[in-house]
UniProtKB/TrEMBL annotation:
It holds the Pfam family TM2. This is TM2 domain-containing protein CG10795-like. Residues 100-149 form the TM2 domain. The keyword Hydrolase does not apply. It comes from the Eukaryota. It is found in: Membrane. It comes from Priapulus caudatus.
Amino acid sequence: MAYVRFNVKSELSLSCIVLLIYFQVSKCSEESNCSKLQIGQYICFPPEINSTTQQPVGCSRQTDGSYKAYAPCVPAPRVSCTGLSQNGTFKRPVDCKPTNGKSFETALLLSVFLGMFGIDRFYLGYPALGLLKFCTLGFMFVGQLVDIVLIATQIVGPADGSSYIIDYYGAGVMHLVVDNVTYYHPTG
Ligand SMILES: *[C@@H]1O[C@H](CO)[C@@H](O)[C@H](O)[C@H]1NC(C)=O
Ligand SMILES: *[C@@H]1O[C@H](CO)[C@@H](O)[C@H](O)[C@H]1NC(C)=O
Ligand SMILES: *[C@@H]1O[C@H](CO)[C@@H](O)[C@H](O)[C@H]1NC(C)=O
Ligand SMILES: *[C@@H]1O[C@H](CO)[C@@H](O)[C@H](O)[C@H]1NC(C)=O
């Protein structure tokens, strides 16, 4: 009697274990779309930068009005997902800014050295203010000083609403880059 009871018990626990393994395996092998991976499940490489615009190549306006480009990413070790390209990468959107040929350095230099003639305002596309500054010697240099501050702090930008061209990896801009070294943190 005791022998039979033991058998039933072990069979029950065995089928339990089999069921558990089955569910565990099916859960693990369930692959999701790469674009749906959470932070920490993938590593992205810096996007390719257009040297003219100093923005990621392919920066374009999205339907929601923001500007995005795409950076290549790879799934983290032991993470698998669908939708990888042949070289094992997938693309994720990164923020970028629209630029229209107006350089921050140029604007600031013009403001400092030629601001009393309004050249900085002409450069940025405010001809009326430029002319006013030209005729008044930059409001007797007071307006020039104000403009230097406004441009240096980037409160005043190009008149068309575009962003200044500033070196993508240059001083003044913070870009957090996560690479395989940052991500990979061996324990022990
Ligand atoms: C860089 O941007 C400029 C201006 O938008 C464009 O004319 C040029 O084709 C771009 N270059 C590359 C390599 O994408
Ligand atoms: C993954 O999702 C993106 C957008 O959410 C979609 O365009 C793409 O077709 C999907 N790929 C697969 C393999 O399901
Ligand atoms: C990987 O493939 C994608 C699309 O096929 C391509 O845009 C990307 O440049 C490739 N990356 C490398 C490192 O070859
Ligand atoms: C990170 O990538 C570089 C080259 O891209 C490689 O030399 C290095 O071994 C990688 N480091 C780790 C921890 O995978």
